[in-house]
Write a structure and sequence with these properties.
It is a single chain. The protein is of the alpha/beta class and about 270 residues long. The chain has 2 domains: about 180 residues, 3-Layer(aba) Sandwich (Rossmann fold); about 80 residues, 3-Layer(aba) Sandwich (Rossmann fold). It contains 11 helices and 10 strands. The protein has a 6-stranded mixed sheet with strand order 6-7-8-3-9-10, sandwiched between helices. The protein has a 4-stranded antiparallel sheet with strand order 2-1-4-5, with helices on one face. A hairpin with a 2-residue loop joins strand 1 and strand 2.
Length: about 270
């Protein structure tokens, strides 16, 4: 099921003055796999995402995206909007929909790059050129297809801000998918979801992995989600990678257990039995 290497991170370091948030991090993510990045609060997970998506410029490091078809991008040298155009889409821990827009409009606006090209950078849109109208129909169709897929087609004309919380989460993922990404970066998509909504999220993410020919990079604190759907897990602690492997391997790694739970009191080093 898995494909070629999609993302290669080499020796990523991110410093803020005297604080090192991420230190000498190396990782890779493959196409058609879900790669989870986990760790305690303050481990550097979101900082990694911010470097990958252009919010931060790394102090040191190489971030290479190799999209299907052979084109390669050095993300550390690119502005955030160029990274998005290269094929990196992102959601945030705090939902960032356009609440006053309709559900459908939120997905159409995600396709603004294609619409702007079709309009010759607004002129064609103003006069309603054939090329623009054709692209607009394609954008609405893609948006409708994704709404159908996340079971929100009947809510297409509702204000996005009026949707229940779990529906807003799924809508944000669908909006990211409407940009046509090669790499989908999800920052705690299960935050605030109940058990039913988490199960629905698992199904959606697995279907995206299996059907869309993209890779997914996931930050998540819900270990039920992580262990259920991840192909690879990378564990950070204090800005450094302490472990990586399959869910089964990670769940038995003493370094991971210690990072989350702390070392048991009264047990000598090497005898903790984790």
């Amino acid at each position: 099921m898995s494909g070629a290497t999609l993302l290669e991170v080499e020796h990523l370091t991110m410093k803020f003055g005297g604080l090192t948030a991420v230190s000498d991090l190396c990782l890779s993510a493959r196409n058609q796999e879900i790669t989870a990045i986990i760790g305690p609060n303050g481990a550097g997970k979101t900082t990694v995402f911010n470097c990958l998506t252009g919010f931060y410029k790394p102090t040191v490091g190489r971030l290479q995206l190799s999209v299907p078809g052979g084109e390669q991008f050095c993300l550390e040298r690119m502005d955030d909007f160029r990274i998005a155009r290269a094929g990196v889409a992102r959601t945030f821990q705090n939902i960032r929909l356009f609440p006053a827009m309709s559900v459908l409009e939120n997905l159409v606006v995600a396709q603004h790059n294609e619409l702007m090209r079709a309009s010759f950078w607004s002129v064609g849109g103003l006069i309603g050129s054939f090329r623009y109208r054709s692209q607009e129909k394609l954008a609405i169709q893609l948006a409708s297809d994704w709404l159908d897929r996340i079971e929100l087609l009947s809510s297409a004309n509702k204000r996005a801000g009026d949707l229940p919380y779990g529906d807003q989460r799924r809508l944000e993922i669908a909006r990211a998918m409407c940009t046509g990404p090669a790499l989908l970066c999800l920052d705690e998509p299960a935050a605030g979801l109940n058990s039913r909504e988490s199960t629905e999220l698992n199904s959606l993410l697995c279907s995206i992995r299996d059907q869309q020919n993209i890779g997914i990079l996931l930050i998540e604190h819900d270990m039920n989600v992580v262990m259920s759907i991840s192909d690879q897990i990378i564990v950070l602690d204090h800005g450094q990678k302490i472990s990586s492997g399959s869910p089964a391997e990670i769940s038995q790694d003493p370094k991971v257990i210690n990072a989350y739970l702390g070392e048991p009191e009264g047990v000598d080093e090497g005898e903790c039995g984790l």
